[in-house]
Amino acid sequence: MAFNATAVLEMLRGKRMLFVGDSLLREQYVSLLCLLHRAIPDASKSFEAVDSLSIFRAKDHDATIEFYWAPMLAESSSDDGADHHLADRVIRGAPMNKHSRFWKGADVLVFNSYLWWMTGDKIQILRGADEDMSKDIVEMEAEEAYRLVLHQVVRWVEHNVDPKNARVFFVTASPTHASGGEAGGNCYGQTSPVAAADAESYHGSTSGRMLQVAGEVLAASRVPVGVVNITRMSELRRDAHTQTYKEQWAQPAAEQAADPRSYADCTHWCLPGVPDAWNELLYWKLFFPARDQAI
């Protein structure tokens, strides 16, 4: 059954849907708004963004669809909604109270976190509740830090979500095509997906170990967490990134402009495009939960 915007809006009547994660999940969020907007009269919808929180309102349905920027889910040095960079990431090892106060009361929660864990072997952890993000720092292997944070998220879900009234989902890793591998080069100039004949033998760059950690932690949750597995299907879409058509933090230098491959964005996706397919999967999990194992 194809995505039905009217059905989604009716399901969300009087409810709050919240996406929590990084810029890849924000792309899925924006995709969902695009899929829904034609079913809502212009006078009956609004959008606002304040700091890390973006809110879309479907007024006739008394519904909100929101996005909260928390790229590592735990509190981190990259939590500013506009000024955030991958380098020098520090996360707080204490409970995630700063973020989770925005999550309370959501009827549908959609989490993701992967990309920001994959730029280096170690993650810096700030211990304790001190506001100074520059002291009492220890290093932890990325996989184990990821496990620690996902355990915290699950613990929060178990204490704050009533599965009779709310749904929780986790979107798996959005792959990049930034370098090498069997795709050959990066995504620049790619105009077609990995061919069907090559798909079985093609292996992307996504960390299987990180996917395993997420699967293990989420499966142990006492509150069901629906896993929206976007990873493999997206790995095959090396052609679907924004490449050189994304607004950059800064204008490309002359040497970059002479070699577009050097600054092509092979992480984020074009809209409409791959994130629309992610929302198709989410739609099926929302409306046909009994078929979860088949998706």
From TrEMBL:
Highest taxon above the source species: Eukaryota
Molecular function via GO: xylan O-acetyltransferase activity
Cross-referenced InterPro entries: TBL, TBL_C
Gene Ontology CC annotations of this record: Golgi apparatus
Any Pfam family matching the protein: PC-Esterase
Trichome birefringence-like C-terminal domain span: 2-283
A biological process term (GO) from this entry: xylan biosynthetic process
Similarity comment: family membership: Belongs to the PC-esterase family. TBL subfamily.
Record-given protein name: Trichome birefringence-like C-terminal domain-containing protein
Species this chain originates from: Oryza brachyantha
